[in-house]
Amino acid sequence: MTTAAPSPRALAHPARDEIRLEAVLHALSDAVRLRIVRELADREAALSCSYFDLPVTKSTTTHHFRVLRESGVVRQTYQGTTKLNALRRDDLDALFPGLLDTVLAAALADSARRALPGSGALTSSASG
């Protein structure tokens, strides 16, 4: 059962038993959303939307947080006028053991690989 939104400031989230693997994988498949999840996991705390310095517009940022919330990856709550985001690690680990840690480790390894000299975008050269 989806958590009801009792007031205009409360946001609906899927209950633990409503979180689906395909929705979580979709949410984690986008580079911006994965960056948000990585930062939430690194900080191990609820962070405001404005904390994140993302290379997208505000409306696109809102979309990314909504996808993460509706998939069950994050929980959003209001503290005054600030919307806080917290990783739903306990729910994700209970439903999909090892998934989040594996994705985060792979993302870290990918970032490290891309940061190495000479690991920039592949270039093609015209042949003969």
From TrEMBL:
Keywords: DNA-binding, Transcription, Transcription regulation. PANTHER family: TRANSCRIPTIONAL REGULATOR, ARSR FAMILY (PTHR33154), TRANSCRIPTIONAL REGULATORY PROTEIN (PTHR33154:SF12). Residues 13-107 form the HTH arsR-type domain. It comes from Streptomyces gulbargensis. PROSITE patterns: HTH_ARSR_2. This is Helix-turn-helix transcriptional regulator. Pfam families: HTH_20 (PF12840). It comes from the Bacteria.
